[in-house]
Write a structure and sequence with these properties.
Layout: H1 2-15, H2 57-60, H3 63-67, H4 70-78, H5 83-91, H6 107-112, H7 118-123, E1 125-131, H8 140-158, E2 164-170, H9 176-180, E3 188-193, E4 198-202, H10 213-219, H11 240-257, H12 262-280, H13 309-330
Parallel strand pairs: 1-2
Antiparallel strand pairs: 1-3, 3-4
Keywords: Signal
């Protein structure tokens, strides 16, 4: 019996010889590692790599992404141009960050739902500038933005208009508000009171804003002399819902078209325009010439036209009368 147990232990030791140890000794702690079977080494499960989200078509066609890619950036680097730095500077906002930028999403939170007491609500006035395209050097939008920023800085230093709040709207990227307010061109001044229920619009071209004129216009509250927008389509009007749904529709269209890069839109719009022009100015097919009559040769006599029955009768009647007279004369 002892031999059989010894043979079993010897067989087990030979099958797992790599895990055979000297045994437990006094004062030695219990082993915490569990022995593994021969050929059954447990491997840690490989960690799943984070699945990257597939890029959208707009991201693949984005001109900034193309220019900042490694091959294109290397080409610009050989020419001595740091295209990444220049693009980062172009992305920076040209406006003063202290003036809040009002968007379609932030308008309700910043202006309509502003936390005010009843007395503060009566005195609160928001002065917004709808800014246009600033890429055109020397344009009216750039000039008005400069005057607007100067007036803001002077007001912050003087601190003499505590109830006036300043804001700016980017006309090119804000669709809902400009459509609902029927603002179709920029730049334009908007004065808001009563949590957006009272709106007054002014064109900067018709105001004296140079040399501190804008500050005087604000300090004397001359904008209150103009009547607020009060029509069927204004806030609180009977047809305000029409402007609301029109603004929503145009905003959704803009959110879709903004996904397409601008250079692709330029190419598509140019192709469509040229196609329409070709259709509108398509030349008319030339008129077919009338078949020419066969010309008669010089030797041939022209065939007389055939006489009708009436003419033949009139010609035959006088001939008979003439023959009768000749017979009477002979007699």
């Amino acid at each position: 019996m002892r031999l059989s147990w010894l043979s079993i232990l010897a067989f087990a030791a030979s099958s797992q010889a790599q895990y055979f140890s000297e045994g437990w000794k006094p004062g030695q702690g219990q082993p915490t590692q569990v022995a593994k079977g021969y050929g059954q080494e447990q491997k840690e499960a490989p960690k799943e790599k984070a699945r990257s989200r597939p890029k959208r078509l707009s991201e693949l066609l984005d001109l900034n992404a193309i220019l900042t890619s490694e091959p294109v950036a290397a080409l610009f680097q050989k020419a001595g141009i740091n295209i990444t730095e220049r693009l980062s500077k172009a992305r920076e906002s040209p406006w003063d960050p202290r003036i809040p930028l009002i968007t379609d999403d932030s308008y309700e939170e910043i202006i309509v739902n502003e936390s005010l007491t009843e007395e503060e609500e009566k005195r609160r006035t928001w002065f917004l500038l709808v800014s246009g395209d600033l890429t055109q050097a020397g344009g009216i939008s750039q000039f008005v933005d400069q005057i607007f920023d100067e007036a803001f800085n002077e007001t912050m230093i003087a601190n003499d208009l505590p109830d006036l709040r300043w804001g700016r709207i980017d006309y090119l990227n804000v669709t809902y508000l400009t459509t609902k307010w029927a603002v179709w061109q920029a730049p334009q001044f908007v004065f808001i009171k009563d949590r957006g229920q009272s709106l007054r619009f002014f064109r900067p071209q018709y105001l004296r804003i140079r040399d501190g004129g804008l500050r005087e216009f604000l300090k004397q509250e001359l904008y209150l002399h103009a009547l607020p927008w009060d029509t069927a389509y204004s806030p609180g009007g009977s047809r305000e819902y029409l402007m609301h749904y029109l603004a929503l529709t145009l905003m959704k269209v803009y959110n879709i078209t903004v996904l397409v890069p601008r250079w692709v839109l330029y190419i598509l719009s140019g192709s469509v325009a040229s196609f329409i022009i070709q259709i509108m100015h398509k030349p008319q097919p030339p008129k077919r010439p009338a078949p020419a009559r066969p010309q008669q040769s010089a030797g041939e006599k022209p065939t007389p036209p055939k006489a009708s029955d009436s003419t033949s009768q009139t010609t035959t009647t006088p001939s008979k009368a003439g023959s009768a007279k000749q017979r009477k004369g002979k007699k």
